[in-house]
Description:
The structure is a homodimer. Chain A is α+β, with helices and mostly antiparallel strands.
Amino acid sequence: MPDDPARIRRLPEKGVDDVAVINSILDEGFICHVAYLSDDRPVVIPTLYVRDADSVLLHGSPSSGIVRATRRGSPLSVAVTLVDGVVAARSGFESSINYRSVVIHGVGALLSDEERGRALDLIVDGLIPGRLGDIRRPTPLELRKTAAVQLPIEVVSAKVSAGPPEDDVADIGTGVWAGVIPVSTHYGEPVPAPDLEPGLEVPDYLRRFRGSQ
Amino acid sequence: MPDDPARIRRLPEKGVDDVAVINSILDEGFICHVAYLSDDRPVVIPTLYVRDADSVLLHGSPSSGIVRATRRGSPLSVAVTLVDGVVAARSGFESSINYRSVVIHGVGALLSDEERGRALDLIVDGLIPGRLGDIRRPTPLELRKTAAVQLPIEVVSAKVSAGPPEDDVADIGTGVWAGVIPVSTHYGEPVPAPDLEPGLEVPDYLRRFRGSQ
Lengths: 213, 213
């Protein structure tokens, strides 16, 4: 796991490949953890996000901590972490996980009424691709009850840990099994709402949800 | 998702059931996201953790941000989030995820040399239950290269979102499929390290890793 989180690099110093890696991590996830300041103390919470070009979009109640911090120009830190494996090394010191993570730092911008509807659409479409064509549009009241924050992907670091354990040479051949247990997210069979009309079929985009089946 | 992260409650005000829920969430996860201050800005990173009675234990390099913040008495915020489902509601506003999360706030304590070995053991055992009996013990050099932080589970909030979509009455019966896609973590077949001795069998505790198979 990262032990030097201060390794923050600006995108212009990174190659195109790195931007592609960052974007691929951001596009695979849908939950981030956002840190913000509340009375000068750090607070971290999970929330949904979506990448929109070179920004990430967050939403929340207008009174939420993320929105209040953004309103006063206070910085955010946003982490997206995908776990790929558990690394069973021959020592505790080398035991770890394989993962891909992105951390973005910056001051967000609150989106205007006009921009907010699109941001909410993108967040729903990021969570459930294909869903937007089926669902009811937001009402003016719902839009008033929601704030959206745009955070540029400018000050950002990505870390990727992959591959087999990296054991000390002296530990190899000592009769201890070593390797990696692959970790992935499994999406099950959709469970219909109790108030669903009889006979409604699960839409194709949910049957094929994020590669399941 | 949580929109009022300021809802922080002290354990003494919560019932035993709540402590049980908090502990069950902390015991199911192994990755947390930790927010700390770096030059008065919030930084969030993923890291491993384990619950030890009424604390969580973290580890990192002695120069890592979490350890440096703890050394100067600066507070941490630690979130553990387990995703249980994607909620496909009939409106974007009600679309969300089912999840269980715990957020702990407080100032951590750096563990002494004596305590650190046990803390690292607990973190490895939390990640791979049963593993400790097989692996090499930490060397004095490894222990010097690792710091461990103990954070009491005192100022803590837990949130659990479960069940079907909660659609507006007016949206029900409109011919839109609604329900939940279950989300779980899948552990695959263990992949042996390339440098593994031929003929070594996967240990039982890895075959049955976290309920797989």
